[in-house]
Amino acid sequence: MIPDSPMTDAFLSGLDHAKTGALIRRLRLEQKLTQAELAQKLHISHKTVSKWERGLGAPDVSLLPALSQALAVGIETLLSGELSPNDETGGTMKHSLFAVCPVCGNLLWSTGKADLSCCGRKLEPLTAKEEEGEHRLLLEQVEDEWYLTLEHPMEKGHHISFLACLSGDSITLVKLFPEGTCAARFPKRRHVQLFWYCTEHGLFQKRV
């Protein structure tokens, strides 16, 4: 989020210009842009970009949205002056996160901590709850597959929108729709984690 005026100047003056400048240069090179090409995208002088990268100033707050888009990072990352790799998770399946956009219903999934956004909104990862009531998963083995069903409404405003099966090295996800069948088949594996999302009551989980 961009700080509101009149505190904008004070906020930007508190930035570590050297760190921010070094990050802008790194991201510019990753995007294979020259200083002149980046400046053209922002409708500014290439000397201004050079000034940023040498730590002699910071971008004006009005340029942050366009700069964020040009360098393919969030505004918060630009202001912090550093990228945050997920060293502690290594992107493994057991650290998987789900998020659902409240505007369009789009499902986002990550194998570790990540900045997730959709429709201009930053999304917080869903917290999975244990199954209960009509959200209790019915699990049946059919040959070499798990057959999953729920006795749950499948109405437009209240339905299960997806079922997912996570194992140590893979994820299988089935998208569900209103008026459809609340069921899915997954390859039978040991030590899997099952997730399903109710549009009204949130994310649920079960370990097998």
Automatic annotation (TrEMBL):
It holds the Pfam family HTH_3. Residues 24-78 form the HTH cro/C1-type domain. The keyword Isomerase does not apply. The keyword Calcium does not apply. It comes from Neglectibacter timonensis. Keywords: DNA-binding. This is Helix-turn-helix domain-containing protein. InterPro entries: Cro/C1-type_HTH, Desulfoferrodoxin_Fe-bd_dom_sf, Lambda_DNA-bd_dom_sf.
